[in-house]
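Box S1 | Example of a co-folding query
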Amino acid sequence: MENILVIGAAGQIGSELTVALRKKYGNDHVFATDIKEVPADIKNAGPSAILDVMDDKRLIHFVIRHKITQIYHLAAVLSGNAEKLPLQAWHINMQSLLNILDLAKVVEDVHRIFWPSSIAVFGPTTPKQNTAQLTVTEPSTVYGISKLAGERWCEYFNTRYDLDIRSIRYPGLISYKTEAGGGTTDYAVEIFYDAVKKGKYESFLKENTALPMMFMKDAVNATVKLMTAPKENITVKSSYNVGGISFTPKQIAEEIKHHIPDFEISYKPDFRQPIADSWPQSINDSVAQTDWGLETKYDIKALTEVMLNGVKEKFNPNK
Ligand code: AKB
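Box S1 (continued) | Returned holo structure for 2-amino-3-ketobutyric acid
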């Protein structure tokens, strides 16, 4: 019997992963927590609580009281926001992870942890195309530095204390249920909202900036697959490359125009352009495919269709 704790259940990943985990383990066994109220559908369907992962004492109390066996720690300050308050972002991203890792060392019931890393662990000196699992990692952003340090801590705790912490280097995640907040890949979410609401979008990245991206359903499936794979299959003790698809703002705009012919895009690059320029354009995820059977279903066409329909439905539920 598993009892799952999701930290960051009100966020972009958490709001969808919680639903998938409840389907798998039963509503009553998945505790949705965040520092703010979780969405109503999640709150009404199963247990939830306000919980601050930075409060290590309350955290450990919660984990023991609810006999938690698996933790999904999804709370983080993303790349764009982290550049505005670097030391705060470092503190939140690192201390929250260390609180969880330290807890797993002492609470025996906790036997598996998921923590997301990111393509942000790569930097300007990393080969940009088909970026390998094991390659140069010299991130130039605070967020990237915190994710790389987090990966090292995960590997350290895995080997030193024989824990089972698993991780994915997510690419940009695209979803309509909960909006992204503070990342560099957020343009690829915002563009759909503005296309539906205004018929136009001003991109904060240049037209030919290619980045790896993934539709949330593929990311959730990948996460569940990784977390249910036999432990002996997990050869990467830090974090797995996961690539999805790669596209530019111009390419996604072209795709949207197939559905909204009058859609207009303009470009006004801001402080996030150098962040995007420092990241890979495409990712090699063959190790994840071999170890735990990673597969993705959504290409740019399918993703555009489902995003436009999802955003339209959100704003005009009766149409
Ligand atoms: C961000 O843009 O900061 C995130 C990420 C790629 O980790 N979406």
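The chain has a mean pLDDT of 97. The pocket of 2-amino-3-ketobutyric acid is lined by residues 78-79, 118-120, 143, 170, 172, 183-185 (CB under 6 Å).
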